[in-house]
Write a structure and sequence with these properties.
The complex is a heterodimer of chains A (296) and B (260).
Chain A: E1 2-6, H1 9-15, H2 18-22, E2 25-26, E3 31-32, H3 34-37, E4 38-42, H4 50-68, H5 81-97, H6 101-115, H7 120-146, H8 150-173, H9 176-183, H10 190-220, H11 228-256, H12 273-291
Antiparallel strand pairs in A: 1-4, 2-3
Chain B: E1 2-11, E2 14-24, E3 29-33, H1 40-47, E4 55-60, E5 63-64, H2 67-71, H3 73-82, E6 83-86, H4 99-109, H5 114-127, H6 143-155, E7 161-165, H7 173-188, E8 192-196, H8 203-206, E9 209-213, E10 219-224, H9 225-230, H10 232-237, E11 241-248, E12 251-258
Parallel strand pairs in B: 3-8, 3-9, 6-7, 7-8
Antiparallel strand pairs in B: 1-2, 1-4, 4-5, 9-10, 11-12
The chains are: A mainly alpha (296), B alpha/beta (260).
């Protein structure tokens, strides 16, 4: 499978001794072995390469999702994050409590209008997430539908679709760091916000590390890998050790900077006309909720 | 050996490589230079097939390298055997439990007999003067030892081209000097070397040719390393050197220094 042929004669024979010509290139400190001076003629065995490729793709897609938030240009992106979070939870609550199919439909139409302002990749991401869970709930409700309980079996998947879409909208329209920052407005404990912030940051950093490790594995996986899972275990171990080291370093750095358990976040976003429109729309939904309370 | 024609690459709508053209012949030692974020590392990743160009053409040994071709396991493996990559951060390259296994990983992949694998590993260990690290865990080594192990695990596969991303980064002066000597030796033994570096003091000793990037992600100079280093105005324009005032002995004067 592997054959070697010498091709390095020129350089070495010009300035080398006879002994060097015969075997290896030698300097005062190093000796280059014969095999390293020969060009490798290598024909790889055939084996599909999906394991490493799939791992690279999955890590890369996670990193892209986190990074994509930095370049988000959607109209919805501008909305003040605490207002956005409050609106999101209000809608979730109203949809969950409503017994009116008309009200749920109105929320659905509103969400469609909002989604139309998103770019295609984000739209696909939100719909993929919501359609998948809706399909799952529809399958669960199928026996109820077949036994004649058509109202609940249609209503529940619709509510699932709308609820997941609402959450998808929030995750795609607000940066993760602004969401954790906004939690402070809702009196979430500092330590919880800090842990959440660090977790998100490390997800990205360790994700990048795993991506590089998978790339390094791919570059050196030039043949049949009989121990794919041991390589995977090696990568997992390295990431784990690295995370432990990073956590220790950060703990020491925080101590050096006088961290006392308080985590100050200054929320600079101001309420603008977009936020006011958003709040008015949400107030409208409260009115509609009560208006359609008696309708099914 | 390596032909890059009008290659462009963007990430999240920002251009990282803009119409890059260069040819590298077999046996050359080439340094890619430029300020941080100018696209050197991206180009090295592209040369190694980790990423693929959005536009343009990349040929290796006369054969075009595309994203589609790299999906073909047979082509990808042949290509990756021919071209070895030493990452900037050695931690991201070492995933085996011992240094021995790390170096043996590539030759074992290539289906070599265990006797031949052992010979290669021992040769690499002695070539890099890391015999005593054989049974150690790569993760617990020092920065210099990790870099040596990372180089050993790449050269054990005997690639024709060795690509190094900032090889001098994080090394003490003694290890830097060792690495310069080692790369010179590899070059003299016929390997093609491509590296990115900021180290203006040592680059001339490793690379005959230097390719300079500007902050617009384009190549602005491709010439002999010595000639490039003499063009201080150009280095200053691409933000690779700076000018500052300080006191030497009796008086104040200005001079250039690199950002290393």
């Amino acid at each position: 499978m592997i054959m070697s042929e010498h091709h390095m004669g020129d350089h070495i024979s010009q300035e080398g001794t006879d002994q060097q010509k015969k075997s290896a290139y030698t300097s005062s400190v190093y000796t280059i072995p014969d095999w390293l001076m020969a060009s490798e003629i290598y024909e790889p065995q055939t084996e599909r390469d999906t394991f490493v490729n799939k791992s690279i793709l999955s890590v890369f897609s996670l990193l892209s999702k986190i990074k994509a938030q930095e370049t988000n240009q959607a109209l919805w992106y501008d909305i003040n994050t605490p207002v956005n979070i409050a609106g999101t939870f209000l809608l979730l609550l109203l949809v969950a409590l409503s017994k009116s199919f008309v009200f749920v439909l109105i929320i659905g139409v509103y969400l469609l209008a909002v989604l139309s302002t998103f770019d295609a990749p984000r739209l696909v991401r939100i719909l993929k997430m919501s359609m998948g869970t809706t399909l799952f709930s529809a399958v669960i409700m199928l026996p109820a539908f077949l036994t004649g309980n058509s109202y609940s079996s249609i209503m529940i998947p619709c509510k699932v679709l709308i609820s997941i879409t609402i959450m998808g909208l929030l995750s795609q329209s607000a940066k993760w760091n602004s969401i954790t920052g906004a939690l402070k407005k809702f009196y979430i404990p500092d330590i919880f916000i800090l842990i959440l912030d660090i977790a998100i940051k490390y997800m990205y950093m360790l994700g990048e590390l795993s991506l590089c490790l998978f790339q390094a594995l791919k570059l050196r996986s030039v043949g049949k890998n009989k121990s794919k899972y041991s390589s995977l275990a090696g990568i997992t171990g390295t990431v784990f050790l690295q995370s432990k080291e990073m956590a220790e370093d950060m703990y020491h750095a925080m101590e050096c900077r006088g961290f006392s358990g308080e985590y100050h976040i200054i929320h600079k976003q101001r309420i603008r006309w977009k936020d006011i429109i958003f709040m008015v729309v949400n107030a409208g939904f409260i009115v509609l909720f009560f208006y359609f309370r008696s309708y099914q | 050996m390596i032909e890059i024609k009008d290659v462009s690459y963007s990430y999240s709508n920002s251009i990282v490589l803009d119409k890059i053209n260069m040819n590298i012949a077999e046996g050359e030692a080439v340094a890619l230079m430029g300020a941080n974020g100018c696209g050197k590392s991206t180009l090295l990743k592209l040369i190694n097939g980790i990423i693929s160009q959005d536009h343009g053409q990349y040929r290796f040994n006369g054969e075009e390298v595309t994203h589609k071709k790299l999906q073909d396991a047979s082509f990808s493996r042949r290509f990756h055997q021919k071209i070895g990559f030493v990452f900037q951060n050695s931690d991201t390259q070492l995933f085996n439990t011992t240094v021995y296994d790390e170096i043996a990983f590539g030759p074992r992949q290539m289906g070599l007999e265990e006797v031949e694998v052992e010979k290669r590993v021992n040769d690499c260990l002695s070539l890099l003067h890391i015999e005593e690290l054989k049974a150690r865990t790569p993760y617990h080594l020092s920065g210099g030892e990790k870099r040596k192990t990372a180089i050993a695990c790449v050269i054990s596969m005997n690639p024709d081209v060795l690509v190094l991303d900032e090889p001098m980064n994080g090394l003490d002066p003694k290890t830097q000097r060792w690495l310069v000597n080692f790369l010179q030796l590899l070059h003299r033994s016929g390997k093609t070397l491509i590296m990115s570096t900021h180290n203006l003091d040592l680059v001339q000793e490793i690379a005959d040719r230097a390719i300079l990037f500007d902050e617009n992600h384009r190549i602005v100079e491709d010439c002999a390393t010595k000639k490039l280093l003499e063009n201080v105005e150009l280095l200053k324009r691409v933000n690779l050197v700076d000018q500052y005032y300080h006191v030497h002995g009796e008086g104040e004067h200005k001079h250039y220094h690199d950002h290393n």
